[in-house]
Amino acid sequence: MNPSIRLRRFHPGDAPELFLLFRETVQTVNAADYSPQQIAAWASNSIDLAAWTARFSQRWAYVAVCNDRTVGFADMTPAGYLDRLFVSAHYQRQGVARALLQTLLEHAQSAQLSLVSTDASRTAVPFFQAFEFQIVRAQNVECRGEVLKNFHMTRSLGQPVLSPLARSE
User: Membrane-crossing residues (predicted)?
Assistant: First the structure.
């Protein structure tokens, strides 16, 4: 990971900036795997910021920061559902997502969970597979009038937190 990147816990005041990072990431990084109409629905201007923000409560949530700039974030429920993991387009492939995921997996192991799950975009599937997540099923999810394909994936926590593939990066 880029040594100038650090992780810290989420604070409610982070939500507006994280929302903008989410929208920008979907519009740039995910645009290769989804149509313009799907991207517009997923990263819509009509998303209720208060509801989006409320999803952080009662979760393990972390923010990645580099030189006082927010570059990524992730959150997971205490039941082991990894809801969101987004990294700025300018910080892709620098270990940010890996560090966020590792931190959440460590929380899940400390909570003695046996399984972590997520609903991964087409874009994110290879990343999660590198961490031993397995595709359980493909899903078509309705999002503000558009259908988006994603993949329900799970990872057993009986495995090491970092896979050999991830460690070799």
Answer: none
